[in-house]
Every structure is written in structure tokens, then in C-alpha cells.
Amino acid sequence: MFNTIKENKYHALVKSYIDNNTDYRFIKQLGDGSYGVAYLIEEPSSGEKFVLKRMKAKHRKSCKLREKFHLEIQLLQEIDLPNTPSVISHGVIEEVPFYIMDYIDGQTFEQSIFIEGNTFSVEQSLKFASQLLENVILFHQKGIVHRDLRIPNILMKDEQLYIIDFGLAVYMKCDVDFNEIDNPKRAENHISDLYFIGHFLLFLLYSTYSPTQKKERSWQEELQLPPSLIEYIERLLIIREPFNSAEDALKSLQCQMLEHSFVSTD
Ligand SMILES: Nc1ncnc2c1ncn2[C@@H]1O[C@H](COP(=O)(O)OP(=O)(O)OP(=O)(O)O)[C@@H](O)[C@H]1O
């Protein structure tokens, strides 16, 4: 209750700050996660839209979470790639840090699958996984791993993928021993992003699935994919020997696409 009152107070403060202290106009709240709140704002002269993301007010006294929020801004600034939002500016409103970034006027894969009911063929799923890997390789080359590549954080706009929410991203560690990774989601190397891409692929592939039996079976049984593709996904999910890098995972995916005639050879 106390936290709700506090968040409402900060919501009003942010709204008034945007309308009175910046060149932007408040439009609406976009999301409310465990660490941050995102708002849609607009530059009235150009009509261009942006996103203001602020830290949750209840975390404002936590040094650890403030550092984490500043790391999110720093990593996004370092990434600076066409398929991730650019940071426009950052600041503090009544002790609460915030930043303004590009707005990607697209649809998350979560909205696409679960709200719009869109379906993805095996061919389309592999093409999107390949596009995602191409983007992920670019920020891995800058030494950054995202660690939260879930379907609400991957957007599609004009058939192009965009990646948002670097709230769990970290600088990659090169000396992580594969055998000592207990939780692949939190691994501080490429393993985490590949693990999430494995799940991303499964969400897309399941979009066309309708159960034929009451009994739930494993994805390997339910999806009826070619054995080499099952093996590929198992490597992403670390059920089998993991890939050494996102580049290796992309090369192997391109072989899959060739093998299943999803790309032309000429
Ligand atoms: N740059 C952006 N362009 C378009 N939509 C965005 C952008 N950033 C955030 N959003 C929207 O706002 C929602 C929430 O943003 P985000 O995922 O960054 O933070 P959060 O989930 O609220 O916080 P956190 O995960 O850090 O606790 C997203 O799911 C997305 O719909």
C-alpha cells in the first residue's frame, strides 16, 4: 500500500516534470516492471515519440540498484546499434534516476503471439532467430551480454527485430567455466543469450501448435521437428554441448536453414 502511494506520487512528479521542465509532452505509461517504469513521451514540434524510463521509487535509496540502473544507461550508450534504442539524455527527478531513449514503434513478440494470435512457420521462426543472433553478435563484439532476451523484450517493426530492456545486461566475462554454470539465464557470457534464444525459438515454433492429446509431452515430442533442428535447439538450451559463441550458433543455424531448404543456394 505504502509503495503504491509512493509510486503514484512519483508518477505525478514525472508527468509534471516532463510537461513543465522538458521539451516533451507526457502521453502514457507503457510498462511497469520490477525495477523500472517506462513512459511514452512526445516532442510536440516534430511529433516524434520517445520513451522515458525511470527507476522504481521504492529502490531509490538502494546504492546497488542505482548502480544497476546507471549500468543499464551506460551499456545502452556503449552499444549504440541501429536495432537497440539510443539514449537521448538522462537525469534525476527527486532522487529517482531516469533516461530518455528512442521509441521503437513496433510490437513485442509477446503481443504478437499471445494478443494478436500470430503464428510463425518453422522457416519464419528460424529467420527471426537468425536475425536475433546477428544483432546479439554485434553487442557481444562490444563485450556486452543482454541476459533477458525474453519475448516481451524483442520487438518487431517492418520485419526488423529490435532489442530493448538492458536492465540485466552486464559486461561479458571470458573466463566462465561452462561446467560451473548452475543457472544459464544468469551466466555472464554468451551462454545466457543463447539460452534465451533457444526459448525464443520455442515460443515461435509453438505458435502453430495445437495439442492432439490430453497428455502433455516434451517439446521434442510435441513439435515434431527434424532431428538436426531438435539437436540445434538442445545445444542452445545446454541440454547438449553448448556453442562456443553466438557466431558459432549463427553458422550452425545457417546450416540448418540450408539443410531444410529455407535459403536459396545460388
Ligand atoms: N525503447 C522502447 N520502445 C518501445 N517500447 C518500449 C521501449 N522501452 C520500453 N518499452 C515498452 O515498455 C515496457 C517496459 O519497459 P522495460 O521492459 O524496459 O522496463 P520494465 O520491464 O518496466 O522494467 P524492468 O524490466 O527494468 O524492471 C516494454 O515491455 C515495452 O512495451
Task: Describe this entry's structure for a reader.
This protein folds into 2 domains: 7-102, Phosphorylase Kinase, domain 1 (2-Layer Sandwich), CATH 3.30.200.20; 107-259, Transferase(Phosphotransferase) domain 1 (Transferase(Phosphotransferase), domain 1, Orthogonal Bundle). Helix 4 (122-141) runs antiparallel to helix 8 and helix 5 packs across helix 7. 41% of the residues lie in helices and 20% in strands. It has helices at 2-21, 63-79, 109-115, 122-141, 190-206, 219-222, 227-236, 246-259, and strands spanning 25-32, 36-43, 48-55, 87-93, 96-102, 107-108, 144-145, 154-157, 160-163, 170-171. The mean pLDDT is 93. The strands form 3 sheets. It has a 5-stranded antiparallel β-sheet with strand order 1-2-3-5-4, with helices on both faces. The protein has a 3-stranded antiparallel β-sheet with strand order 6-8-9. It starts with a helix and ends in a 7-residue tail after the last helix. A hairpin with a 4-residue loop joins strand 2 and strand 3. The chain has 266 residues and is an alpha+beta fold. The chain contains 8 helices and 10 strands. The protein is globular, with a radius of gyration of 20 Å. Bound molecules: adenosine-5'-triphosphate. Adenosine-5'-triphosphate binds at residues 30-38, 51, 53, 85, 101-104, 108, 152-153, 164-165, 167. The site of adenosine-5'-triphosphate has 22 residues, from strand 1, strand 2, strand 3 and strand 5.
